[in-house]
């Protein structure tokens, strides 16, 4: 697998020379460290849609019994791949399996975003995944898009409505920066719902998945959910977002009649309307 991985790297277009250099270095590390058992890449490079600014979205498997001992060597190896600006390692929120994320920024704008896990563990087949190194043939199976669950839909819709409820609260207080922050949070949840409506892969990534897989289906009305710090424009953007939360929920509702927080939606919509009607000066 290392040979085919190397061939894949060398077939990258000239525009991706920065990424090629980083991948060559990572492949060499895989071949030189017995503890590293597999390396995969996905997202824009795996899909063949990368440009010169694309980062490397990578997964790496390390022999289970050597994970703790090997992780420091892997951090150092990532730092050596290029002219390092800085790097950072941490655990991803919500990911309960043993893991570490390593992010590195290099002076030539190259970026490595690497998640390291024990080699025996798996997150399942990943969309657009390319196997670069796998001498044990551990990585198998084709990607199949999982269905969006009722729990996910409820979480995203409820998160959007809660953020809009907070936005109304902060507008009443005259705290426009906090109102704008909550508006942005609500946008993130709405992007996830639109991604589910359009049935794109990985709808949990919201706007990113829509741009990756259905860029022509970005709802034009989303532009009206953007605002500056003006009170009236913040409120108008929030109301537009509320209407779209309702619309997206209705498009999903036949599959999730009991999951969607319809009462919360009505409450927040009415609350924002009351804020308009109050004409309170801020």
Protein described:
By secondary structure, the protein is an alpha+beta fold. The chain has 2 domains: 132 residues, Beta Polymerase, domain 2, CATH 3.30.460.10; 129 residues, Four Helix Bundle (Hemerythrin (Met), subunit A), CATH 1.20.120.330. The protein has 9 helices and 6 strands, in the order H-H-E-H-E-H-E-E-E-E-H-H-H-H-H. A hairpin with a 4-residue loop joins strand 4 and strand 5. Helix 5 packs parallel to helix 9. The longest helix is centred in the middle third of the chain and has 24 residues.
Share in helix:
40-55%
Strand order of the largest sheet: 3-4-5-2-1-6
CATH superfamily of the largest domain: Beta Polymerase, domain 2
Helix/strand/pairing class, anyone? alpha+beta
Which stretches are low in confidence, meaning pLDDT under 50 for 5 or more residues running?
Answer: none
Averaging pLDDT over every residue, what do you get? 91
**In CATH terms, what is the fold-level topology of the largest domain?**
Beta Polymerase, domain 2
Major beta sheet, specifics?
6 strands, mixed
Strand content: 5-15%
Rg of Cα set:
22 Å
Spell out the helices and strands N to C. HHEHEHEEEEHHHHH
Distance between the termini: 64 Å
Key features?
282 residues; alpha+beta; Beta Polymerase, domain 2; Four Helix Bundle (Hemerythrin (Met), subunit A); 2 domains; six-stranded mixed beta sheet; 14% strand; elongated
């Amino acid at each position: 697998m290392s040979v085919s991985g190397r061939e894949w790297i060398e077939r990258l277009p000239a525009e991706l020379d920065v990424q090629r250099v980083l991948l060559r270095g990572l492949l060499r590390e895989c071949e030189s460290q017995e503890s590293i058992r597999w390396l995969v890449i996905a997202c824009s490079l795996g899909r063949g849609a990368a440009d010169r600014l694309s980062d490397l979205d990578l997964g790496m498997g390390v022999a289970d019994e050597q994970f703790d001992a090997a992780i420091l060597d892997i951090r150092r190896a990532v730092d050596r791949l290029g002219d390092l600006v800085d790097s950072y390692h941490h655990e991803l929120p919500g990911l309960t399996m043993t893991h570490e994320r390593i992010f590195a920024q290099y002076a030539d704008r190259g970026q490595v975003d690497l998640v390291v896990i024990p080699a025996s563990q798996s997150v399942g087949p990943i969309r657009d995944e390319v196997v670069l190194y796998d001498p044990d043939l551990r990585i198998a199976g084709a990607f199949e898009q999982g269905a969006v669950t009722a729990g996910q839909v409820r979480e995203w819709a409820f998160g959007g409505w809660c953020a809009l409820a907070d936005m109304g609260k902060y507008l009443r207080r005259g705290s426009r920066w906090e109102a704008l922050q909550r508006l942005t949070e609500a946008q993130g949840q709405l992007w996830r719902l639109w991604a589910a409506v359009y049935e794109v892969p990985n709808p949990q990534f919201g706007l990113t998945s829509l741009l990756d897989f259905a860029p022509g289906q970005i709802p034009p009305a989303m532009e009206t959910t953007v605002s500056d710090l003006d009170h009236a424009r913040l409120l108008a953007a929030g109301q537009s977002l509320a209407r779209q939360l309702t619309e997206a929920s209705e498009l999903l509702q036949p599959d999730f009649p009991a999951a969607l927080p319809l009462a919360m939606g009505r409450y927040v919509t009415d609350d924002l309307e009351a804020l308009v009607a109050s004409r309170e000066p801020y």
